[in-house]
Amino acid sequence: MRVGEVEPMPGYTGLLTRASTVMLSALRDCSACGLELSKRTLLDNAYITWTEIGLFFMCAVMWTQIRRGLTECLFKPFAQRCCLQPKDTAKMPESAWKLVFYTMSWSYSTYLLFFTNYTFFHDPPSAFYDWKSGMTVPTDIAIAYLIQGSFYGHSIYATVYMDDWRKDSTVMVVHHVVTLALITFSYAFRFHNIGLLVLFLHDINDIQLEFTKLNVYFKTRGGDYYLIHDILSNMGSVSFSITWFWFRLYWFPLKVLYATCVSSLQSVPNIPFYFFFNSLLLTLLCMNIYWFLFIVAFVAKVLTGQMKDVKDLREYEGEEGAQRAAALLAAQQRLQSEDAGHLNNSAEGKHVQNGITKEKHL
């Protein structure tokens, strides 16, 4: 295929057949593959300076300090002023911080992919056209890499020491490590073009997730129930579910994995660390599928009536889950013993949630 001609995006069957054929052929041809060749390839093709490493650590610390400052000076006071429930007051700053960052980073990636001359979204194989070892990284893409790489370096620390621990937090740490490895090595080996596309396809879901969670926290505050936040949380949940599949399970494998598994070898027959990078990307795809199972479980519970409100399925594990289940059971028992006067209050435009009568607000 000629350079400049857009290759049509394959289907799942085309991806599996072409990728498996190309990768098996590359494995058979790699007679010298091994530790010695990997070491030599690393020394010959990895380009990263101490200045860039220093900027990475400086920005990682900067994100941590910015988050702490925003949490103490803005997010926590705002949550307290809004009279959120105590458990929601504790979790709201985390979601607010992530919403701010991912909105900023995804907007910048969108700008680069759709409002500049880069064609990597519409023509992913073009990410490997004219690739050269040690080629100069454009400044605008280098800035995107510095922002994202330092943020994921910060996120490894934040998941362990700053965020609430959830049932998939261990997987989240692995995700951050894999993502940071992809960002670092793709920059060093000058695979930054396809890396920019990977970042774009993943950040949009984090925006929707944190937006949904914030509306869940805000729909019950100050003893009142706010219908508008309930509506927004349900809309955000539906949008999150759709875009997760569309961006991470449809575009990501058919655009990114096809380009890295098939097109990269067509453009650069001896491209370095071909199997290493594709292994990391396949690991990322497996984690996307793992989290999609949470989404399927969520939809199934809603459809079968097991869940009435939008909640984060990653939360309420272990002892906290048992305490929450006991509290819900006690609330149900109290509801069953309510007298007719309480029922009349509900009929007059009040909302009962967890055994508490609350006014409805828009």
TrEMBL record:
Subcellular localization is given as: Membrane
An MF annotation (GO) of this entry: sphingosine N-acyltransferase activity
Q: Which Pfam families match?
A: TRAM_LAG1_CLN8
Indicate the transmembrane segments per the record.
47-66, 99-121, 141-160, 172-189, 226-247, 256-275, 281-304
Which ranges carry the TLC domain?
A: 90-304
Task: Supply the name of the protein.
Answer: TLC domain-containing protein
| Main location (coarse class) | membrane
Query: How is this protein situated with respect to the membrane?
Result: Multi-pass membrane protein
What PROSITE patterns has UniProt attached to this entry? TLC
